[in-house]
Amino acid sequence: MTLEAPEPEQAAVEAKEKYGKSQADFAIEKEHYQRLLEAARTPGAISPLDISTVKANMEADSVLCNATKANWQMQEIMMSCLRITAPFSGVTTTRNVNPGALVSAADKDKPMLELKQNDLLRLQIDIPETMSSMVNDKDTVLFYVDALPGKMMKAMLCRNSDNINNNYRSQRMEADINNSEELLAPGMYADVTLRLKGNASAMYVPKSSVVISAESKYVLSDHNNTIRKIQVTTGNESDGKIEVFGDLQPGKQVIVNANDEIKETENHM
After folding, report:
1. Exposed site from 17, 124, 186, 197, fewest CB < 10 Å?
2. Helix, coil or strand: residue 242
3. DSSP string spanning 41-87?
């Protein structure tokens, strides 16, 4: 796409003409100086002051010629900015400026065009902070989109931000999707399934046994008719079970369908 801007075009023409004039002036002054040097070979023919004056004029014309050349080159660079070339081939999805429209400084925050590449898409995944250490580059993920119900697709993670977002407490990872068949479209939301390794120090309990209150998370252990709250933190979920971390020992029984109405009890013998 090529834009039209009369002012930069005129400035480039003027800069080129000034460079040409300064180049000619420098060539004439250089020729004058060289002829004086030849004449000065005859003793007393040329005054040393005249030679110094012409030399100074030649050097000044040389500096002016370099300056006008730099200005002309700068104007040429400005002119090249009027030609906008896309960094990749794609489809124009949004056009905010049509041919012949006048673009003012007030429109500087609005893009003229939006170009999207459809044959290669980028899947962006926000990994929760609690799981970020379990996900690595080149891990395979499964994802689904609403536009293709029941169709499972695979992708390999290839980029990692290595940074936790302070607002969402998540880590951004990306995968490249080959969309040569154009089944997907940019902007689609995907449901992503990650296959993560469990934590060796965690224990699994039914998800329904974890009670989430305003103050904490806990499970209710039932041992010898004594119900006790055990504070826990949770991790991955899978098949109705969830990882828990806390003062919970293997073999202890927990109430499966727990809720905050169940109170702790004491065992009276």
Report:
1. 197
2. strand
3. TSTTSS-HHHHHHHHHHHHHHHHHHHHHHHHHHHHHHHHHTTB---S
Residue carrying structure tokens 């900015």: 81
Residue 167, amino acid: N
Phi/psi of residue 98, each to 5°? -105, 160
Using alpha carbons, select from 85, 92, 177, 179 the residue that is nearest to residue 140. 177
> How would DSSP label each residue in 33-45?
HHHHHHHTTSTTS
Please, which residues bridge with residue 219 across strands?
A: 230
The CA-CA-CA angle for residues 114, 120, 125, to 5°, reads 90
User: Exposed, middle or buried by CB within 10 Å (0-12, 13-18, 19+), for 65?
Assistant: buried
Query: Do residues 180 and 126 lie in contact, with contact meaning Cβ atoms separated by under 8 Å?
Result: no
**Tokens 């002012």 appear where?**
7
For the cut 70, the answer to whether the pLDDT of residue 267 exceeds it is no
> Is the pLDDT assigned to residue 107 strictly greater than 80?
no
Q: Cα separation of 265 and 269, whole Å?
A: 13
CA distances for 24 relative to 27, 31, 50, 52, 258, angstroms: 5, 11, 21, 21, 94
**pLDDT tens, residue by residue, 56-87:** 999 999 999 999 999 999 999 888 888 888 88
